[in-house]
Amino acid sequence: MADHIRIRKATGKWVVRAGGAVLGESDRALELTEGDYPPVIYFPREDIGMAFLEKTTSSTTCPWKGVASYFTVSSAAGDIPDAAWSYEEPSEAVAAIKGHIAFYTNRVTVERL
Fold it and tell me: Do you know which Gene3D superfamilies this protein is assigned to (predicted)?
């Protein structure tokens, strides 16, 4: 793994909300820290209401994690484009995040309960 990336089990139970609706809760979330960036919480897909998410055609490539696919989040307040992402086939160094989804905290609420 790149020396500047760390993945560990996130402490406690985490929730993600959009437009007042709970999209998911998990006590199995992972916390990824990368360099000086704020930590990112990755939720297992099984703990997210995937009916609220629709995969988009957007993608980005990280040299350490691989190709990220993006999702629009649907809420009562409207659609939030590309508010979530997932590494469908992450690099071996960050394989732990496979099957997990992260959310932009400036678009939805992610918090520890």
Answer: Domain of unknown function (DUF427) (2.170.150.40)
Q: What is the mean pLDDT of residues 90-109?
A: 96
Q: Edge-to-edge strands of the sheet including 78-86?
A: 5-9, 30-34, 40-44, 100-103, 78-86, 66-75, 53-62
Per-residue model confidence as pLDDT tens digits over 63-96: 999 999 999 999 988 999 999 999 999 999 999 9
The residues spanned by each domain of the chain are: 5-112
Q: What is the CATH number of domain 5-112?
A: 2.170.150.40
Question: Taking Cα atoms as reference points, which of 55, 49, 53 lies closest to residue 68?
Answer: 55
Half-sphere exposure of 1 (CA within 13 A, CB side): 15
Among 110, 51, 109, 53, residue whose Cα is nearest residue 82: 53
The pLDDT, as a whole number, for residue 2 is 63
Question: Smallest Cα–Cα separation from 98: which of 23, 45, 38, 25?
Answer: 45
Give the Cβ contact number of residue 79 at 10 Å.
12
